[in-house]
Amino acid sequence: MSSSPPAAPWLLVIDPQRIFADPSSDWAAPTFPAAMTQIQRLAAAIGPQRTLVTRWLPTADRSTSWGDYFAAWPFADVPADDPLYALVDGAEQLSDRPTIDEPTFGKWGPQLAGIVGAGAELLVTGVSTDCCVITTVLAAADAGCRVTVVTDACAASTPEDGAAALHTLGLFPPQVRLARAADLLP
């Protein structure tokens, strides 16, 4: 009895938004431009049919701990349609699908799971390595996905925080592995 070949991986691009890319933003990730270059290379190789783009939106209930969060970061407490939350130039063209919008750090949830399915192979990229990437990766691994974090296609809040996040993610093999874009591209 022959087994079927493994499904092609999904490229997950976490939160390529202006709030994380604009150098004037309090949440700017300094290596975002370099990460976006790698994301675009990966998306070109994988194709828009298997590339998914997420957005973090400030729509969480303010009566929860999210109220405290937005009190600490008032510049981000604006309507979801504010230009801060728009995708960066070129991000919309990465995928044939609508963005997956979530009000949470982690993007793994019913929307994403419903598209990729149980046990999917995910190549995870985006911003911020030390926040939305790490929370998404660990939840997806818990759900049974095989996750590769593309280290040079992720951007962190600081180099030190990014290194700490990658160190932590490196503690979860075989469900989570770390690789550079060049290791994954033909």
UniProtKB/TrEMBL annotation:
GO MF annotation list: hydrolase activity
Hydrolase in keyword set: yes
Keyword tags: Hydrolase
Pfam families cross-referenced by the UniProt entry: Isochorismatase
Transmembrane segments: none
Highest taxon of source: Bacteria
Domain Isochorismatase-like: from-to ranges: 10-169
Protein name: Nicotinamidase
